[in-house]
Amino acid sequence: MRRRVPAIVATAAAGALLLGGCSGGGGGAQESDNTLTLWHFEGANSAMGVAWDEAIRVFEEETGATVEFEERSFEQIRSTASQVLNSDEAPDILEYNKGNATAGLLASQGLLSPITDAVEEYGWADKLAPSLQTTARYSEDGVMGSGDWYGVPNYGEYVMVYYNKDAFEEAGVEVPTTLDEFEAVLQTFADEGTTPLAEAALEYPLGQLWYQFALSQADRQFVNDYQLYENEVDWQGEALTYATEKVQEYVDKGFISEDITGLKAEDAGVSFINGDAPMFYSGSWWYGRFADEIDGFEWGTFLFPESDLTLGSAGNMWVVPANSGDPELAYEFIDITMRPEIQALLGNNGGLPVAAEVADITDEKSQELIEGFNTVNERDGLAFYPDWPTPTFYDALVAELQELVNGTKSSDEVLTSLGEEYDDYAADFRE
C-alpha cells in the first residue's frame, strides 16, 4: 500500500522490477546454494529498512550463507502474490501483509508454510503480546486469530495525525482533544486558503480516514463483526453512514482536496514533508522517514480525537512460502530480526519494536511514537484496517471512495456497493 525503495541489494537480480519477471529467485532453485532469497518493501531510511539491513549483515556473518535481496514494492507483492508464490519464482522468505484478505487468503490456498513448529522451537510466541499474535495465526478458511502460525510480526504499527508544529503556531491553534476542536483547526486553515489534510484517494490513505470516522462511532463488537465475521454488518447503520458522509463533508468544506482522486500515498506524504499541508492522517510506517527527511519545521503527532479505537495492528510479517527452497535458513533469519539488538535498532530509528528492551530505546522521537502505541494498546484500541475483510475489498474501497469524492455516487450508493462486495465474501464464514 505504500511505495518502497530497496533497503539493501546483496545480489539483486538485474532488472527484476516486476514480480512475474524476477530471475533465478526462489524456491527449489536455491536449495543447494546456501542462499536465502529475501523480499521486503521497506525503504532504506525507514526503521524497518535500517533494522533488516543489519539483520542481513548479521545473518550472513553468522551462517556463512548469502542473502539475495530483491526489490519489490508493496503493490507489486499485493497484486501478484498468489501467482508468483505458486511458481518456482517464489522467494525463500518475504515480508507480507497481514489480515484475512492477504496472508489469510494465501494460507488457505496452501501457498504459505505453516510455521507453528518453528514458533515453538524458537520461542517467538513468548516475545509477542497476545494482541499481536492475532494476525499471525489463521484457520483453515484463512480467518485470523486461531489455527496455525503462518508468519511472525516483529514490529507494530498504528495510525495517527501528523502535524506541523510551526504551522499550528503561526495559525494560533493547538493540538485538539475533541472532534469539534479538530474540525475547528481544519476550518482555520481552510479559511486561510490552505488545504489542511494531505490525502490520497488513488491508494490507501482516504480509506483509512473513512474507517477511522466509522471507528469513532463504534465499539469493539463492531470491529469483531467487521473483521472476524461474528455478526452481520449493517452497511446503512450509524457508524458506516457517518464515515461516508464525513468524507463528503470534508471534501465540501475544503478540508481535503477534490484532486485527491489522482494522488497516491507517496504524494500525500511528500506534501506533508514539503510543508504544503499542515496535517497528514497516516501510519507509523512514515515516522522514520519523516524524522529523516523533514528539516524545515518541527512536527509531532496526536491520536485521532474522541475515539477509543484506532487503525493498527502487529506490523507486516515474515512469511515462508510453501515453495521456499530453504525454510530452515528463513527461520534463522526471522530469529535474528527478533533479537533485542535488532529490535532496539528498529525502535531507535522510528519503528515500533515488539521484543526490544525498553532501556535500549534512547531516541526521544522514538519514545514519543512508542508512548502513543502503548496508549492505544492499554485501551485495547487496535482495530486493524478497512480493507482486510475480503481479498478484493482494498480495490473496491479505493474505487468507491473515488466515486464519492468525484460526486458520481452518493453516500447511500457507495455503502450499497461496498456492502454487496463485503457480504458476498463474508456470508460464507457465518453459515
What does this molecule look like?
It is a single chain. This protein has 431 residues and is of the alpha/beta class. The protein has two domains: 19-155 and 315-356, Periplasmic binding protein-like II (D-Maltodextrin-Binding Protein, domain 2); 158-312 and 383-430, D-Maltodextrin-Binding Protein, domain 2. 44% of the residues lie in helices and 11% in strands. The chain contains 17 helices and twelve strands. The chain has helices spanning 47-63, 74-85, 100-108, 116-122, 130-133, 165-171, 179-191, 205-215, 220-228, 238-252, 265-273, 287-293, 327-337, 340-347, 364-378, 393-406, 411-430, and strands spanning 35-40, 66-71, 93-96, 137-138, 148-149, 152-153, 156-164, 197-198, 279-283, 299-302, 312-314, 317-319. It has a five-stranded mixed β-sheet with strand order 2-1-3-12-6. The two termini are 32 Å apart. The relative contact order is 0.17. Mean pLDDT is 89; it is low at 1-32.
Write a short abstract of this structure:
By secondary structure, this protein is α/β, with parallel strands linked by helices. The chain has 17 helices and 12 strands. The protein is 44% helix and 11% strand.
